[in-house]
Amino acid sequence: MITAEKEKADSAFYYEVCLLRLLGEMGYLDEKALDGIVQIAAEDYGTSLLLDKTFLCLN
């Protein structure tokens, strides 16, 4: 993957994880569902970012 495309995919993945984390905090997703969706998203975006979803996002 070209570097710019990889960066876009990583950014999109990060943004998605932040949104999913917000949904989890609001009670719409439990921890197991959140982990599963994040795994699927990582595969979909082809990212290899190592993320701690409890430490992500600024909100």
Topology:
Blueprint: H1 3-25, H2 31-45
Helix pairs in contact: 1-2
Describe this structure in words.
This protein has two helices and no strands. It has helices at residues 3-25, 31-45. It is an all-alpha fold. The mean pLDDT is 83. Helices cover 64% and strands 0% of the residues. Helix 1 (3-25) runs antiparallel to helix 2. The chain starts with a helix and ends in a 14-residue tail after the last helix.
What does this entry show, briefly?
The protein is mainly α and 59 residues long.
Radius of gyration: 12 Å
| Principal-axes shape call | elongated
β-strand amount: under 5%
| Fraction in helix | 55-70%
Q: For the terminal residues, how far apart are their CA atoms?
A: 31 Å
Name the assembly state. Answer: single chain
What keyword list fits this structure?
59 residues, 2 helices
